[in-house]
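My current task is to audit a protein record that another person submitted. I have pasted the whole thing underneath without changing anything:
***
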Amino acid sequence: MKVLLYLIVSFLASIIGAICGIGGGVIIKPVLDFCGLASVSTISFLSGCTVLSMSAYSVAKNLSSGENNVDMKTGTPLALGGAVGGILGKQLFSAVKALFANPNAVGAIQAACLALLTLGTFIYTVYKNRIRTKQIQSVAVCVGIGLALGLLSSFLGIGGGPFNLVILFYFFSMDTKTAAQNSLYIILFSQVTSLLTTLVTRTVPTFEWSALLLMITGGIGGGIVGRKINRKLDNNAVDKLFMGLMAVIILVSIYNTVRYAGA
Protein backbone atom coordinates (compact mmCIF):
# COMPACT_ATOMS: atom_id res chain seq x y z
CA MET A 1 0.00 0.00 0.00
CA LYS A 2 2.84 2.39 0.87
CA VAL A 3 4.56 1.90 -2.50
CA LEU A 4 1.24 2.23 -4.35
CA LEU A 5 0.66 5.56 -2.62
CA TYR A 6 3.93 6.88 -4.07
CA LEU A 7 2.65 6.04 -7.57
CA ILE A 8 -0.83 7.51 -7.06
CA VAL A 9 0.42 10.77 -5.54
CA SER A 10 3.10 11.33 -8.20
CA PHE A 11 0.70 10.51 -11.05
CA LEU A 12 -2.15 12.77 -9.92
CA ALA A 13 0.22 15.58 -8.89
CA SER A 14 2.02 15.47 -12.24
CA ILE A 15 -1.27 15.69 -14.13
CA ILE A 16 -2.14 18.91 -12.30
CA GLY A 17 1.47 20.11 -12.52
CA ALA A 18 1.56 19.65 -16.29
CA ILE A 19 -1.75 21.50 -16.70
CA CYS A 20 -0.80 24.46 -14.51
CA GLY A 21 2.95 24.52 -15.19
CA ILE A 22 4.01 24.08 -11.57
CA GLY A 23 5.89 20.81 -11.92
CA GLY A 24 3.85 18.68 -9.53
CA GLY A 25 6.44 18.74 -6.77
CA VAL A 26 4.54 21.49 -4.98
CA ILE A 27 1.81 18.87 -4.48
CA ILE A 28 4.01 15.78 -4.04
CA LYS A 29 6.28 17.25 -1.35
CA PRO A 30 3.61 18.48 1.11
CA VAL A 31 1.33 15.47 0.53
CA LEU A 32 4.13 12.94 1.19
CA ASP A 33 5.22 15.02 4.19
CA PHE A 34 1.61 14.87 5.40
CA CYS A 35 1.56 11.07 4.99
CA GLY A 36 4.91 10.71 6.78
CA LEU A 37 6.16 8.06 4.34
CA ALA A 38 9.85 8.99 4.61
CA SER A 39 12.30 11.54 5.99
CA VAL A 40 12.27 15.17 4.86
CA SER A 41 15.48 14.70 2.83
CA THR A 42 14.23 11.54 1.12
CA ILE A 43 10.90 13.10 0.17
CA SER A 44 12.65 16.18 -1.22
CA PHE A 45 14.93 13.96 -3.32
CA LEU A 46 12.12 11.73 -4.64
CA SER A 47 9.94 14.75 -5.37
CA GLY A 48 12.75 16.45 -7.32
CA CYS A 49 13.43 13.35 -9.42
CA THR A 50 9.73 12.98 -10.23
CA VAL A 51 9.41 16.62 -11.27
CA LEU A 52 12.52 16.30 -13.42
CA SER A 53 11.05 13.35 -15.32
CA MET A 54 7.70 15.06 -15.85
CA SER A 55 9.14 18.40 -16.95
CA ALA A 56 11.64 16.70 -19.29
CA TYR A 57 8.82 14.82 -21.01
CA SER A 58 6.56 17.88 -21.25
CA VAL A 59 9.27 20.20 -22.61
CA ALA A 60 10.57 17.61 -25.10
CA LYS A 61 7.05 16.85 -26.32
CA ASN A 62 6.18 20.52 -26.78
CA LEU A 63 9.38 21.09 -28.77
CA SER A 64 8.95 18.02 -30.98
CA SER A 65 5.28 18.69 -31.70
CA GLY A 66 5.79 22.32 -32.67
CA GLU A 67 3.52 23.51 -29.85
CA ASN A 68 6.28 25.26 -27.94
CA ASN A 69 5.26 28.67 -26.51
CA VAL A 70 8.58 29.36 -24.79
CA ASP A 71 10.14 32.65 -25.90
CA MET A 72 13.79 31.60 -26.08
CA LYS A 73 15.01 35.20 -25.78
CA THR A 74 13.67 35.37 -22.24
CA GLY A 75 13.06 31.68 -21.51
CA THR A 76 16.68 30.59 -21.96
CA PRO A 77 18.20 33.24 -19.62
CA LEU A 78 15.46 32.39 -17.10
CA ALA A 79 16.30 28.69 -17.40
CA LEU A 80 20.05 29.29 -17.07
CA GLY A 81 19.42 31.38 -13.97
CA GLY A 82 17.20 28.58 -12.71
CA ALA A 83 20.07 26.12 -13.24
CA VAL A 84 22.39 28.16 -11.03
CA GLY A 85 19.58 28.66 -8.54
CA GLY A 86 19.08 24.91 -8.40
CA ILE A 87 22.67 24.48 -7.19
CA LEU A 88 22.40 27.29 -4.64
CA GLY A 89 19.06 26.00 -3.36
CA LYS A 90 20.49 22.55 -2.73
CA GLN A 91 23.43 24.08 -0.85
CA LEU A 92 21.04 26.24 1.19
CA PHE A 93 19.01 23.15 2.13
CA SER A 94 22.15 21.38 3.36
CA ALA A 95 23.27 24.46 5.31
CA VAL A 96 19.89 24.91 7.03
CA LYS A 97 19.69 21.19 7.80
CA ALA A 98 23.13 21.33 9.44
CA LEU A 99 21.98 24.11 11.79
CA PHE A 100 19.51 21.88 13.61
CA ALA A 101 19.98 18.63 15.51
CA ASN A 102 16.36 17.72 14.81
CA PRO A 103 15.97 16.72 11.13
CA ASN A 104 12.29 17.73 11.26
CA ALA A 105 13.24 21.38 11.79
CA VAL A 106 14.12 21.90 8.14
CA GLY A 107 10.78 20.30 7.22
CA ALA A 108 8.97 22.88 9.33
CA ILE A 109 10.93 25.70 7.68
CA GLN A 110 10.18 24.34 4.19
CA ALA A 111 6.48 23.98 4.95
CA ALA A 112 6.21 27.47 6.47
CA CYS A 113 7.99 29.07 3.51
CA LEU A 114 5.78 27.20 1.06
CA ALA A 115 2.62 28.27 2.91
CA LEU A 116 3.65 31.95 2.89
CA LEU A 117 4.76 31.96 -0.76
CA THR A 118 1.60 30.19 -1.89
CA LEU A 119 -0.59 32.56 0.14
CA GLY A 120 1.10 35.53 -1.54
CA THR A 121 0.59 33.88 -4.92
CA PHE A 122 -3.09 33.26 -4.13
CA ILE A 123 -3.64 36.92 -3.21
CA TYR A 124 -1.88 38.11 -6.36
CA THR A 125 -3.95 35.77 -8.55
CA VAL A 126 -7.20 37.08 -7.05
CA TYR A 127 -6.26 40.68 -7.89
CA LYS A 128 -4.10 40.12 -10.98
CA ASN A 129 -6.60 41.76 -13.35
CA ARG A 130 -6.10 45.03 -11.46
CA ILE A 131 -2.29 44.86 -11.49
CA ARG A 132 -0.33 46.42 -14.33
CA THR A 133 2.28 43.95 -15.56
CA LYS A 134 5.72 44.52 -17.04
CA GLN A 135 7.57 43.26 -20.11
CA ILE A 136 11.16 42.58 -19.05
CA GLN A 137 13.69 42.25 -21.89
CA SER A 138 17.02 42.54 -20.05
CA VAL A 139 19.01 39.29 -20.16
CA ALA A 140 20.68 40.05 -16.83
CA VAL A 141 17.34 40.63 -15.11
CA CYS A 142 15.95 37.42 -16.63
CA VAL A 143 18.92 35.46 -15.28
CA GLY A 144 18.42 37.01 -11.84
CA ILE A 145 14.73 36.16 -11.78
CA GLY A 146 15.44 32.61 -12.93
CA LEU A 147 18.10 32.23 -10.23
CA ALA A 148 15.62 33.25 -7.52
CA LEU A 149 13.00 30.81 -8.82
CA GLY A 150 15.51 27.98 -9.09
CA LEU A 151 16.84 28.61 -5.58
CA LEU A 152 13.37 28.58 -4.02
CA SER A 153 12.25 25.49 -5.92
CA SER A 154 15.39 23.53 -5.08
CA PHE A 155 15.45 24.55 -1.41
CA LEU A 156 11.79 23.68 -0.92
CA GLY A 157 12.21 20.36 -2.76
CA ILE A 158 9.20 21.03 -4.96
CA GLY A 159 10.75 21.43 -8.41
CA GLY A 160 8.59 24.44 -9.15
CA GLY A 161 5.82 26.32 -7.44
CA PRO A 162 2.81 28.57 -7.99
CA PHE A 163 5.13 31.54 -7.48
CA ASN A 164 6.82 30.64 -10.79
CA LEU A 165 3.62 31.55 -12.61
CA VAL A 166 3.06 34.78 -10.68
CA ILE A 167 6.59 35.95 -11.50
CA LEU A 168 6.02 35.15 -15.20
CA PHE A 169 2.61 36.87 -15.13
CA TYR A 170 3.95 40.05 -13.54
CA PHE A 171 7.38 40.52 -15.09
CA PHE A 172 6.67 39.17 -18.59
CA SER A 173 2.90 39.72 -19.10
CA MET A 174 2.37 36.06 -20.05
CA ASP A 175 -1.06 34.44 -20.14
CA THR A 176 -1.64 31.35 -17.99
CA LYS A 177 -0.90 28.64 -20.56
CA THR A 178 2.19 30.39 -21.95
CA ALA A 179 3.49 30.90 -18.40
CA ALA A 180 2.89 27.19 -17.73
CA GLN A 181 5.22 26.13 -20.57
CA ASN A 182 7.90 28.65 -19.60
CA SER A 183 7.67 27.54 -15.97
CA LEU A 184 8.25 23.88 -16.92
CA TYR A 185 11.26 24.96 -19.03
CA ILE A 186 12.81 26.72 -16.01
CA ILE A 187 11.97 23.78 -13.73
CA LEU A 188 13.74 21.36 -16.07
CA PHE A 189 17.04 23.24 -15.87
CA SER A 190 16.89 23.86 -12.12
CA GLN A 191 16.11 20.21 -11.37
CA VAL A 192 18.92 18.88 -13.58
CA THR A 193 21.52 20.95 -11.73
CA SER A 194 19.92 20.22 -8.36
CA LEU A 195 20.15 16.47 -8.99
CA LEU A 196 23.72 16.72 -10.30
CA THR A 197 24.71 18.70 -7.19
CA THR A 198 23.25 16.00 -4.97
CA LEU A 199 25.15 13.29 -6.85
CA VAL A 200 28.47 15.16 -6.98
CA THR A 201 28.39 16.09 -3.28
CA ARG A 202 27.31 12.55 -2.38
CA THR A 203 24.36 13.78 -0.34
CA VAL A 204 21.80 11.38 -1.82
CA PRO A 205 19.53 10.33 1.07
CA THR A 206 18.51 6.75 1.75
CA PHE A 207 15.53 5.78 -0.42
CA GLU A 208 13.71 2.77 -1.81
CA TRP A 209 14.43 2.12 -5.50
CA SER A 210 10.89 0.80 -5.99
CA ALA A 211 9.50 4.11 -4.73
CA LEU A 212 11.75 6.14 -7.03
CA LEU A 213 10.90 4.07 -10.11
CA LEU A 214 7.16 4.21 -9.41
CA MET A 215 7.27 7.95 -8.81
CA ILE A 216 9.17 8.59 -12.04
CA THR A 217 6.66 6.39 -13.86
CA GLY A 218 3.84 8.36 -12.27
CA GLY A 219 5.58 11.63 -13.16
CA ILE A 220 5.93 10.79 -16.84
CA GLY A 221 2.44 9.26 -17.01
CA GLY A 222 0.98 12.32 -15.34
CA GLY A 223 2.88 14.56 -17.74
CA ILE A 224 1.36 12.72 -20.72
CA VAL A 225 -2.20 12.97 -19.39
CA GLY A 226 -1.77 16.54 -18.10
CA ARG A 227 -0.43 17.80 -21.40
CA LYS A 228 -3.44 16.39 -23.26
CA ILE A 229 -5.85 17.99 -20.79
CA ASN A 230 -4.02 21.32 -20.95
CA ARG A 231 -4.56 21.50 -24.71
CA LYS A 232 -8.34 21.22 -24.20
CA LEU A 233 -8.68 23.81 -21.45
CA ASP A 234 -8.83 27.58 -21.86
CA ASN A 235 -6.93 30.03 -19.66
CA ASN A 236 -9.97 30.64 -17.43
CA ALA A 237 -10.32 26.92 -16.62
CA VAL A 238 -6.60 26.62 -15.86
CA ASP A 239 -6.85 29.68 -13.58
CA LYS A 240 -9.69 28.08 -11.59
CA LEU A 241 -7.77 24.82 -11.17
CA PHE A 242 -4.71 26.82 -10.12
CA MET A 243 -6.68 28.73 -7.47
CA GLY A 244 -8.19 25.59 -5.99
CA LEU A 245 -4.81 23.91 -5.91
CA MET A 246 -3.22 26.82 -4.05
CA ALA A 247 -5.91 26.72 -1.37
CA VAL A 248 -5.19 23.04 -0.73
CA ILE A 249 -1.40 23.60 -0.68
CA ILE A 250 -1.73 26.39 1.88
CA LEU A 251 -3.81 24.25 4.25
CA VAL A 252 -1.56 21.18 3.95
CA SER A 253 1.59 23.30 4.38
CA ILE A 254 0.23 24.92 7.55
CA TYR A 255 -0.55 21.48 8.96
CA ASN A 256 2.94 20.22 8.06
CA THR A 257 4.55 23.27 9.67
CA VAL A 258 2.77 22.60 12.97
CA ARG A 259 3.42 18.87 12.84
CA TYR A 260 7.15 19.15 12.10
CA ALA A 261 7.63 21.97 14.62
CA GLY A 262 6.11 19.81 17.36
CA ALA A 263 7.97 16.62 16.40
